[in-house]
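tool_call: predict_structure(chain=1)
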Amino acid sequence: MKNTNSIVFFNFNTKLDDAVINQLSKLKPAGTQLLLDTKANLIELLKLTLFDLTLKQVLIIKKVLKRAHARDPHLREYVIVETGKNFATYSPSGFENYFTKRIDEDTYFQLKVYIREIYKEITSEYKYKKEIIKDLKLNDYFKNSFFSIIFSIVSTNKKGKKLKLDITEHLLEVDKNIGYLIENKPDDALKLIVFLKGNIFLLKNLKFELLEKLKVTSMSSTENHKELVDDWFWIDFMTDPDLSFSDLLSDISEMFDSIDDYFSIDSGADWDVDVDIDF
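tool_result:
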């Protein structure tokens, strides 16, 4: 990432060294979450990966009205997933391939079916965590002892615990300051959000509606700082006046609250029979 130091150093109480800054700038949210909580479950990691791909416009999640079959007189609302504008040019990590390899520009799926197939393909939570660690080059931060391999345990080593503390401290400071920055220093807020990318989902105090206030700032900033476009796949949502960034993220936020139903065997969903939808 270009000019990383200038992007993350504001008037925060914490100071990260260059190695931590570089690592954080490259981390995708599933990797960050795994560093912060090695006991994060598979569903949580898959959700973070799905919504990171959505923010990058690799995938699009939307609601459509369709008939369940040709003779159904009623239109029903379904949530579907299809490819986004950056799908063809995006190079997915191995742990993201579960999402990208089963879809192309000519197909789309009911989200429940799509997620179910991904969930069924992953043989174990441990395997998926190890894929994240390998793909994001985080091996130096996790234990790789005979004991941890035999018992399928994922845990950070001393170096990983230090990185966890640094990232946790930084994200806490971001949480404390992000609202103020958006309201009073929008240029700094924009650069910080660009730096965090999908890791914004790990923030607890970010109000997505506030991001709408950054539209004017983002339009001028992307003209003066072309590097922002290179670093931010989803910059279109900030520069297009006809697109509501807050509405998009509100929809995604709602999906975080409801998407467990798509994974849960106890939710009453039929995991063995696909719904016949006239798409």
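agent: Confidence is low (pLDDT under 50) at residues 1-9, 228-234, 267-279. Proceeding to next step.
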